[in-house]
Amino acid sequence: MNKHGGYQGNKEQVIDFSVNISPFGPPQSVKQGIMESIETIEKYPSIDGGDYRYLLQEAFSLDKLDPRQLIIGNGAMELIYLFARSLKPERVLLIQPTFNEYQRAFELVGTKVEYFILEENSGFTIPEDRLIKKIQNLKPEVLLLCSPNNPTGVRYDKKLLKGIARELSDWGGILFVDESFGEFVLDKDPYGTTGINNIFILRSLTKFYGIPGLRLGYGIGHSSLIEKLLEHKEPWTVNTFALKALEKIAAEKEYPRQLADWLREEKTYLEKHFQALENPGLKIYPSYVNFYLGKIQGIPAKLVQEKLLEAGIYLRTCEDFQGLDHEHFRFAVRTGKDNEKLIQGFRKILKELSDHK
Ligand SMILES: Cc1ncc(COP(=O)(O)O)c(C=O)c1O
Description:
By secondary structure, the protein is of the alpha/beta class.
């Protein structure tokens, strides 16, 4: 299994910045809906979630799409593995550094996985000309990227994505865009790159709605691709409670607004205070979402992690991502007091380091 965030140690009262999920937990309406639907577990849920796709359209303003362009999954994760299993492409190109499950999903079905590694000194942005050349040379059946990207927080431009899709279409290739963190983008466009024949978009409800234990995600793609995925999908993977949660989320107007307000405020706070730490070795990369990638030049992230843990704060080291190294770490945005503690923790570390020089 790949490494993921989440504190596993035995220290009590740790503030876990290593998981990039809403710190508020699910909306009350979701919890209540689940409690109220307890009796319904006596019946099988919908075989493939097909009848519930209209709820995705309501929840995420996707009413311009045909329901046949949508698929519901047991988390976004099910759809990553289902996509790989259904298409079994010979060659996939991954834009790295990125979420590490894509590689596993494709390698398990015998796909050759190739990388295009983004450079840190270009802020992990995509050099369009170089990528297009690589695509033309390699002719991958699938190019997969995550936008906004986990763990860099970079969002790729819509025009660039359309250009990549156009290139791939010459040999029937598909652009797979994982937008699992898309709900956190403050100026989001629900349609983005939807409706383009050879783009498959993946979204997760886990992160924004604070429901990792429930498992709910969805995909958007051309109806023929969705049909193919449905042919390979196992029955009943999306359970009764997850479908109930979707119904509640579709009716939930307040929670997304609250999350946007929280995120705007806390990102402003964190960015201002990290800047005020004024340390030439400290680098926190700009991010569109609810987490940041960073490093302290010359200092192993493991040491930063250990030092912060002494103050009850836990962040994720990133040495397991292709294109990152032992200095990189990732932390999520949490609520006010937690974020203040994070800043205090970094202030202390940086002071200790400069005292040692
Ligand atoms: C980029 C990305 N995509 C997909 C997933 C899987 O999300 P889910 O919990 O909906 O399966 C994750 C989980 O960490 C992720 O970071």
